[in-house]
Amino acid sequence: MKRTNYLKGLRVILAILFFVPILLYFVDFRGLAPDMFNKLLHIQIVPALISGTIAIWIFQFLLALLFGRIYCSVICPAGILQDIINRIFCIGKKKKKGSSRFVYHKPHNILRYGLMAVTFLLFIWGSSELLLALDPYSNFGRIATNLFRPVAIWGNNLLAEILAKVDNYTLFHMSVQTVTTGAGIAAGLALLVFIGMVLFRGRLFCNTLCPVGALLSLVSRYSLFRVVIDKDKCIGCGLCEKTCKAEAISTKEFHVDSSRCVDCFNCVSSCKKDSIHYRFAPFNRKAKTKEVIEPAAHSRRQFLATGTIVASSLPLMSIYARRNRQRHGNGNTNPITPPGSHNLEQFKDKCTGCHICVAKCPSQVLYPAGMEFGFGYFLKPHMSYINSYCNYECTICADVCPNHALDLKGVEEKVTTQVGVAEFFINRCIVKTENTDCGACSEHCPTQAVHMVPYKDTTLTIPQVEPQLCIGCGGCESICPVRPKRAIIVKANTEHAYVEKPKEEEVLDIVIDDFGF
């Protein structure tokens, strides 16, 4: 193995060590992945910025200042996914033919920096929709949760059927409940964008649309270690340029655009004359080869075209949102946000819809929203009690959230957080409509907020709700047998309230000195 191949080999090994645990953590549907894998989500740049984890983003910027955009090829799961797509595309092709897809292109500076500025300005203003659409980590999370995870579950179910035929019941059937139509479409579109851009222009997404890539490029252009071309040794064969996924190498100018280079080291390993190296080369404005900038008019047209497409889609999505709200069955015009979100507006600002909470929720009560709550809540998780309810002492969603959009101070806060209040509709209850006993809602209430009281002058009892005790967990709604509209429904609190923890019943210490009859 040549000495120059070591850098690429090390990069591939590190990328695998980051990517595989992150992918397994999202895809894991049996809860087998170690909790330590969760730490890899918290070092992603956008979650670190949103959660205010200053140490992480300072570390990432220092890493870029020292070594360039290592983050994009080693730490970012979306970047590694694009490398995998590129590798799959090259399978079965001759090396020369497969690698010649790339050629130097001028940077789209107005487009990438314009989008970055608009994205972060909107986020500061309180709108996270554009960041949700462009954040590489969140896009990967949606792809893994809504596409890869269902495929893994279907594979598990197929194997379970095969094993059951030989009386082996090691595996069991799992259901795919939390993949909504909107989330599936969004994840599919994100994957198609990755595939299309990779096949067309390599790391085009990272160097045009990705706000993280644009942010890091501002630092990496001054990195201390960088890829440089030795003019005296270079024969201008163009192999390095043809293998550059970022299309950042110009052999005519003997120039490597450090702002776009993602440190994949394909160029270093492809060079036959040992004329391109990754080495200590501090930024020198005087010695630096003049960067070839894309003509402003062309780049400006691309930026305006992108902005026009995004802007023109907003009215259509708003109309669709209003229609969905009108059709929303349970009367909730606001989503029931998970415990720890504190209030609707704060959660909308901090959540980027990565869906890790959806993937890890053990009771599968979290669903990605479509347009039923408006464009501003698109793809963000909400609680739906159609098939399940929120476990009383479970804090997993808050534990795994890398953005700290969900913030719970332990179980004590969880069991006293009121995300909504149950509302009872007596005219739907089968105690009244069918003159029969039920009480399922009361039996499933962990706080005694729903209890049974005498009904008229009969031996029957009917539910009664004490709002000051209800935490909105949905135990009552999920178990109610009335269809299509249930007799008890949780209405969302846009601002979470807090209730007193129910007192435990006193246990009497009874001494039995005989048989107890």
Report the principal-axis shape: elongated
Rg from C-alpha positions?
28 Å
The number of strands is 10
Q: Helical amount among residues, as a percent range? A: 40-55%
Number of domains: 2
Spatial gap, N to C terminus:
85 Å
Structural class: mainly alpha
Could you report the average pLDDT, rounded to the nearest whole number?
Answer: 87
Q: How large is the share of residues in beta strands?
A: 5-15%
Q: In which order are the strands of the major sheet placed? A: 1-4
Low-confidence stretches: 287-296, 306-329
Biggest sheet details: 2 strands, antiparallel
Question: How many helices does DSSP assign?
Answer: 23
Provide an overview of this structure.
The protein has two domains: 5-280, no CATH class; 333-498, Alpha-Beta Plaits (2-Layer Sandwich). The protein is 46% helix and 9% strand. The chain contains 23 helices and ten strands. The model is unreliable at 287-296 and 306-329 (pLDDT under 50).
